[in-house]
């Protein structure tokens, strides 16, 4: 996939999340993998209305979030790069949806989910697994966030809650990441309200 093709996908996906209310007020950012060796991602540009992106509103970055093409990458590009490098994900999404932030506030040591059918949509068994979604403190330093992510990383748990900030979810591609995020958001709303 080249940068323009990635831009088409990222703009469409961003518009979708914005319509869901998950990327309010310029919040959130998305990335897809462009290449492996060295790692390259296409990430949404910083500070734009994510519901109005065009295919050119993306920037190529390296594993550390450094821009490899013109434009200003997301302020969180460094965390996208770290997540992609550590997990092997083909796509990483970051959305400012409320339920994960509320759950992180209530369970700052990790959000435990079990015995719920929607866990299947997160790639886990509904009745056998106990899933703990890691919660890390917010930081403006992506290296600090990346270290906290990596310390709690488990290959079978493709999500991270950043306290008082938002949610990261990743997958093989944007579709899988979205399906996982939608199911996880449902699960978090459930445990908050149950
Ligand atoms: C009101 S959004 C604050 C910044 C943020 O957390 C975010 O997700 C958007 O940052 P970006 O640089 O990707 O636009
Ligand atoms: Zn954010």
| Parts with pLDDT < 50 across at least 5 consecutive residues | none
- Rg on CA atoms, Å: 15 Å
CATH class: Alpha Beta
Q: Which class best fits the helix and strand makeup?
A: alpha+beta
The overall pLDDT average reads 98
| Number of spatially distinct domains | 1
Pathway: Amino-acid biosynthesis; L-methionine biosynthesis via salvage pathway; L-methionine from S-methyl-5-thio-alpha-D-ribose 1-phosphate: step 2/6
Catalytic activity: 5-(methylsulfanyl)-D-ribulose 1-phosphate = 5-methylsulfanyl-2,3-dioxopentyl phosphate + H2O
EC number: 4.2.1.109
Domain Class II aldolase/adducin N-terminal: 8-192
Q: What do these coordinates show?
A:
The protein has a single domain (3-193), classed as 3-Layer(aba) Sandwich (L-fuculose-1-phosphate Aldolase). The model has no long low-confidence stretch (mean pLDDT 98). The chain is α+β, with helices and mostly antiparallel strands and 194 residues long. The N and C termini lie far apart (43 Å). The chain has helices at 3-19, 77-87, 98-106, 142-151, 174-193, and strands spanning 29-36, 39-44, 58-61, 91-95, 111-114, 130-133, 135-136, 159-162, 166-171. It has a 7-stranded mixed beta sheet with strand order 3-2-1-4-9-8-7, sandwiched between helices. Strands 5-6 form a two-stranded antiparallel sheet. The structure holds ligand L4RZE5RM and zinc ion.
Output the keywords.
about 190 residues, alpha+beta, L-fuculose-1-phosphate Aldolase, two-stranded antiparallel sheet, binds ligand L4RZE5RM, binds zinc ion
Short summary:
This protein is of the alpha+beta class.
């Amino acid at each position: 996939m080249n940068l323009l093709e990635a831009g088409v996908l990222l703009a469409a996906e961003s518009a979708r999340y914005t319509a869901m209310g998950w990327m309010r007020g310029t919040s959130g950012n998305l990335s897809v993998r462009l290449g492996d060796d060295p790692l390259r991602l296409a990430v949404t540009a910083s500070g734009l209305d994510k519901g109005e992106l065009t295919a050119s509103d993306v920037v190529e970055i390296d594993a550390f979030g450094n821009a490899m093409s013109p434009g200003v990458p997301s302020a969180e590009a460094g965390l996208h790069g770290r997540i992609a490098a550590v997990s092997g994900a083909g796509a990483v999404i970051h959305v400012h949806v409320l339920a994960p932030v509320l759950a992180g506030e209530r369970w700052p040591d990790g959000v435990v989910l079990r015995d719920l059918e929607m866990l299947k949509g997160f790639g886990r068994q509904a009745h056998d697994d106990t899933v703990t979604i890691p919660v890390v403190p917010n930081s403006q330093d992506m290296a600090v966030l990346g270290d906290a992510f990596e310390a709690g990383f488990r290959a079978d748990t493709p999500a991270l809650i950043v306290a008082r900030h938002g949610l990261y979810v990743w997958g093989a591609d944007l579709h899988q990441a979205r399906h996982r995020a939608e199911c996880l958001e449902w699960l978090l709303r459930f445990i908050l309200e149950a």
